[in-house]
Amino acid sequence: MEQNTDLDDGPQTLGVRAGGRDQDQASRLESLTKDDMRRLRLGLGTAMLLDEVYFGFDRGDCLHGQLWWFDEYDVDLGAPVAPLEADSPHPGTLQRRFTHGRVIVNPTGQAVTVTFPEPLRDASTGVVGSTIVIPPSDARLLMLPARKSRCDVE
Predict the structure, then answer these.
(1) 6 in a domain, yes or no?
(2) CATH number of the domain where residue 45 is located
(3) pLDDT digits over 58-78, tens only?
(4) Is the pTM of this model over 0.85?
(5) Which of 27, 31, 64, 84 is the most buried (most CB within 10 A)?
(6) Does any domain span residue 69?
(7) Residue 65 region by backbone torsions, left for phi larger than 0, else alpha for psi between -120 and 50, else beta
(8) Residue 30 sits in which domain range?
């Protein structure tokens, strides 16, 4: 990381932005990267573990005037039915159950495989199954298969 120590107010980091992009690079991006989407899911899933939290996403620490909307924002998991559960359903993960599904956050550095007694639909991929792999530093919004997000097309 480059440091500028010539300034009167001490060392400052130069050109370091979220995702390793500077402001000029970020302004030219026309789509989000896979890492941006992972960070979106991790942030949204973490916010959903708690009560009375608002969440918004942008590409980093610059260009905050952009408006982003994601399919995950349209998922209706219903009301929470329990507080967050640590080390559930896998050691190191966090889970919260809702009337129509659940949120699982994997803040660990390793992928985790989770198996459920009933099939669930991954809101990000649309895949329905009873075994789901959650990558490291990622989260999944999982809904009952009969549920659809508001953006599903018949």
Answers:
(1) no
(2) 2.60.40.1180
(3) 766 666 666 778 889 999 999
(4) no
(5) 84
(6) yes
(7) alpha
(8) 21-143
Sorted by sequence, the CB contacts under 8 Å of residue 47 that are 6+ apart come out as 53, 54, 55
- In a domain? residue 42: yes
* Token output for 97: 């159950």
Q: How many domains does the chain have?
A: 1
What lies within 8 Å, CB to CB, of 52 at 6+ separation is: none
Query: Of 77, 67, 64, whose CA–CA distance to 139 is shortest?
Result: 77
**73-112: pLDDT as tens digits:** 999 999 999 999 999 999 999 999 999 999 999 999 999 9
* 14 assigned to some structural domain: no
Please say if the pLDDT value at position 42 is more than 90: yes
Which strands form 85-86's sheet, in the order they lie side by side?
A: 85-86, 94-98, 101-106, 138-143, 112-122, 128-134
Find out whether the peptide bond into 89 is cis, omega within 30 degrees of 0.
yes
Question: pLDDT value at position 101?
Answer: 95
